[in-house]
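User: I'm putting together a teaching handout on how sequence relates to shape, and I'd like one worked example. Could you take Exportin-4 from Equus asinus asinus, show the sequence you're using, and then write out its predicted structure as tokens right after it?

Assistant: Happy to. First the sequence, then the structure tokens directly below it.
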Amino acid sequence: MFESSQNVLLKPTECWRETLLDSRVMELFFTVHRKIREDSDMAQDSLQCLAQLASLHGPIFPDEGSQVDYLAHFIEGLLNTINGIEIEDSEAVGISSIISNLITVFPRNVLTAIPNDLFSSFVNCLTHLTCSFGRSAALEEVLDKDDMVYMEAYDKLLESWLTLVQDDKHFHKGFFTQHAVQVFNSYIQCHLAAPDGTRNLTANGVASREEEEISELQEDDRDQFSDQLASVGMLGRIAAEHCIPLLTRYTQSRETPWSKCSLFKIPWRALKVFKDFKHPHPVSQHTGTNGQKHTHDCVPWLVHLEPRHYSIDGREIMENMV
């Protein structure tokens, strides 16, 4: 599998300038990956090379213009490689690392200096991959897989979103709104039971674990997924006009025995707010024993997205969605 721990940034000396800034060299690496991507072992090596090329920085660039040209050619090669194909499991972490490097290493003024259509296509690709990897990560949880490759890839893409949208002065107002809505909706859907979401569904022979196993094996969701919640909460703030009513509607439509919520360590202030909600909508027919359990699982995920402090890489950030 792709070794994300080996994701060392590439900072060569000036003597490599003529070679590495030649767009034909970059295209060669993408071509090689397209040829060997179905061989998981070889694909890891090519993805590692591309991830390092995505982190290229330092004196090798003589000026900002050369950075813009390099980044534009790299994104074109990336989109040509992954658009219209089904990502292999073995590619997920590598591709997410490539995207993460592009967003974290290259300055915002360089990223926004590439052609508008190309940048829009890149963000569209990021949105699509985030939603797709999120659904696959949810399936990995159901299957209780040992190698959570999609979960790792999903985490990387959400961190990339957080990095991208926090520095919004380089983007016009509302640029990320529709993208944020798509990622937010996808995240909510993966953590709600039917009929609003897909959590705990039995499909294609895949069934959720028993409640006792979940209680024994899973740590508190808010702690386990704190980084994910911080990123999704930030996206929710960007699209607050859509996301806040959505959360309100879902919480209002679910009957919940609140005495069970202490199992999820819900803050008492949030608990009081949600206890005061009325329930004007009829309760779904999914209210048998399993239906009630699924509802109990859903409400904490909604509450976890309330405004709160999260810590990422030692930094405290405040999610003020209102």
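A couple of points you could highlight for students: The longest strand covers residues 309-312. Residues 210-218, 256-289, 307-322 have pLDDT under 50 and may be disordered.
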